[in-house]
Amino acid sequence: MSMIRDLRAAVRPRPSLRKDSGSYDTTRDPGTPSAVVDCAVYRDGARVLTPDQLTPHEAMRQVRRDGGFVWIGLHEPTEAEFAGIASEFGLHPLAVEDAVQAHQRPKLERYDDTLFTVFKTIHYVDHAQLTATSEVVETGEVMCFTGRDFFITVRHGGQGSLRALRHRLQDDPELLARGPSAVLHAIADHVVDGYIAVADAVQDDIDEVETEVFSPGRKGTPRGTDAGRIYQLKREVLEFKRAVSPLLRPMQLLSERPMRLIDPDIQKYFRDVADHLARVQEQVLGFDELLNSILQANLAQASVAQNEDMRKITSWAAIIAVPTMVCGVYGMNFRHMPELHWRYGYPVIMGITVVICLGIHRTLKRNGWL
């Protein structure tokens, strides 16, 4: 807790102070929560309790003197809040700008002795029923700065908290002793595991829509579903795809290309993450293609239903045309019409009309128009 209190002062640097002075502007609104979520020094895989009033500058001096690394977690920091830490750890301005502004594609970039990694987190939004306006997935971002003796995470969005992950790593000192690269792998594995869980949930939604589209309705024909629901689900899958696909190349680089900041033993585990990510990508691409097919099938069913309605309307119009024609003929004011003075003229004409109508009805029904 003392480190967190110290970092609240560290995130607001005074322009007049030197980088190595260890002093920071502490002016802030008391009602505004700090962007720093957690901070700790880890040595030999164990969290070190730091003395009171320890600034990041002093923490880094302690780490470089006694070993270990610093792990700082921030949530949606402003440019002013992040400036002090960025200056203290020598972060590249371009990476700092990306971390503060967010809305970045998943990527891996190297700036001098720092790796900058961007992950998009995905959270499945529970809903009682899928509608044309349902939000299926919610995205966030986690930016990671990996150095030789520090690890900084910047999180955006309400989802994707790393608190539970930090606690799990602290329960495994042997893994955490590998340094910042172990934390980077743990976050990558955590994010990809989240993708797998969301993919399973989205699969259930697609199955539900597919069942509704092809389930029999009246008279055994497919009843179809609202095209807006399919289109909304396709948009959500597209957002999922934008998080998964760009991340595959960075994971392959971390698993295949030797890097000074990545422990060789940890690098092997990135292969497993890349493999899981590749499978999720294939699944998401399959979702996209399947939804295209479902949407086309639904539109085709709508067209077929419209054609059937038009055939029925046309059939009944043809049947009604017969008595309409007969009535039209006998409604004319001709003087010489033989049937007008014949006793059986009316029933004969009505009978002929009914027979013709029944014949047309039977023919159209036999041909599938009715």
Distance between the termini: 78 Å
Total helical elements? 11
- Largest sheet: spatial strand order: 2-1-3-7-6-5-4
Secondary-structure element sequence? HEEHEHHEEEEHHHHHHH
Oligomeric form of this entry? single chain
**How much helicity do the residues have?**
40-55%
Instruction: Report the β-strand fraction as a percent range.
Output: 5-15%
Task: Provide a concise account of the structure shown.
By secondary structure, the protein is of the alpha+beta class. Helix content is 55%, strand content 14%.
Task: Characterise the protein shown here.
- The protein is an alpha+beta fold and 370 residues long.
- Helix content is 55%, strand content 14%.
- The chain contains eleven helices and seven strands.
- A seven-stranded mixed beta sheet has the order 2-1-3-7-6-5-4, with helices on both faces.
- A hairpin with a 2-residue loop joins strand 4 and strand 5 (114-124).
- Helix 3 packs antiparallel against helix 4 and helix 8 runs antiparallel to helix 10.
- Residues 1-32 have low confidence and may be disordered.
What topology emerges from the helices and strands here?
Elements: H1 2-10, E1 36-43, E2 46-48, H2 56-66, E3 69-75, H3 79-89, H4 93-101, E4 107-111, E5 114-124, E6 137-146, E7 150-156, H5 163-170, H6 173-176, H7 180-214, H8 227-244, H9 248-256, H10 264-330, H11 345-366
Parallel strand pairs: 3-7
Antiparallel strand pairs: 1-2, 1-3, 4-5, 5-6, 6-7
Helix pairs in contact: 3-4, 7-8, 7-10, 8-10, 9-10, 10-11
